[in-house]
């Protein structure tokens, strides 16, 4: 953090994982349950709404994101804190933005069903399922951020959802308490 920027009063949390693991559901519930106001940004939807893409890939049924435009749009929000960034990848986000990176994981058979229910093309289901089995997103997170801020959580059902959100809420409370102490001492 530069000396001229004020300290964040709320964290920037990245919730990531293979498509279908429950990122948006977790982020929505966390935004509701958080002890501090957090703005949920579903990055994939944001890209579409703000036109932050180069083309649409028909085969994969997805947008090819203009990463520079996306990062420029997110910079002021993520740097200030108080946001949950919900996206299937995390390594493009600067390390300085993240206070916590939550990688959601799901059993690959459950994931396959979820993606089928979304109507994904078979090719996309297979690739995402393989990515989950190979822990691609988890490895991205571990190689992009300090290990102490990367947390892997299971996301297989409602119990996991509730437990995970409660755990993140506790983390937010501890983060704020630590920041208050540091601010008073500094």
From TrEMBL:
Top-rank taxon, per record: Eukaryota
Subcellular location: Cytoplasm; Nucleus
Region feature NMPbind, mapped onto this chain: 42-65
EC number, as in UniProt: 2.7.4.3
SUPFAM superfamilies in alphabetical order: P-loop containing nucleoside triphosphate hydrolases
GO terms under biological process: ribosomal small subunit biogenesis; rRNA processing
Keywords: ATP-binding, Cytoplasm, Kinase, Nucleotide-binding, Nucleus, Ribosome biogenesis, rRNA processing, Transferase
Pfam families (UniProt xref): AAA_18 (PF13238)
Chief location bin: cytoplasm
Catalytic activity: AMP + ATP = 2 ADP; ATP + H2O = ADP + phosphate + H(+)
Segments for region (LID): 117-127
Binding-site list for ATP: 20, 22-25, 118
One GO cellular component term noted in the UniProt record for this chain: nucleus
Protein family: Belongs to the adenylate kinase family. AK6 subfamily.
Subunit structure: Interacts with small ribosomal subunit protein uS11. Not a structural component of 43S pre-ribosomes, but transiently interacts with them by binding to uS11.
Described function: Broad-specificity nucleoside monophosphate (NMP) kinase that catalyzes the reversible transfer of the terminal phosphate group between nucleoside triphosphates and monophosphates. Has also ATPase activity. Involved in the late cytoplasmic maturation steps of the 40S ribosomal particles, specifically 18S rRNA maturation. While NMP activity is not required for ribosome maturation, ATPase activity is. Associates transiently with small ribosomal subunit protein uS11. ATP hydrolysis breaks the interaction with uS11.
Protein name according to UniProt: Adenylate kinase isoenzyme 6 homolog
């Amino acid at each position: 953090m530069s000396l001229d920027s004020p300290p964040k009063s709320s964290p920037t949390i990245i919730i990531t994982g293979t498509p279908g693991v429950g990122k948006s559901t977790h982020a929505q519930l966390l935004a509701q349950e958080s002890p501090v106001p957090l703005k949920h940004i579903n990055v994939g939807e944001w890209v579409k709404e703000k036109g932050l893409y180069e083309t649409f890939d028909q085969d994969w049924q997805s947008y090819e994101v203009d990463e520079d435009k996306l990062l420029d749009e997110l910079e002021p929000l993520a740097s200030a804190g108080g946001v949950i960034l919900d996206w299937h990848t995390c390594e493009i986000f600067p390390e300085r933005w993240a206070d916590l990176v939550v990688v959601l994981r799901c059993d690959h058979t459950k994931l396959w069903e979820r993606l089928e229910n979304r109507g994904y093309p078979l090719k996309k289901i297979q690739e995402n399922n393989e990515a989950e089995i190979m822990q691609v997103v988890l490895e991205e997170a571990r190689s992009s951020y300090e290990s102490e801020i990367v947390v892997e959580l299971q996301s297989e059902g409602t119990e996991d959802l509730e437990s995970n959100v409660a755990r993140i809420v506790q983390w937010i409370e501890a983060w704020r308490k630590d920041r208050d102490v540091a601010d008073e001492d500094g």
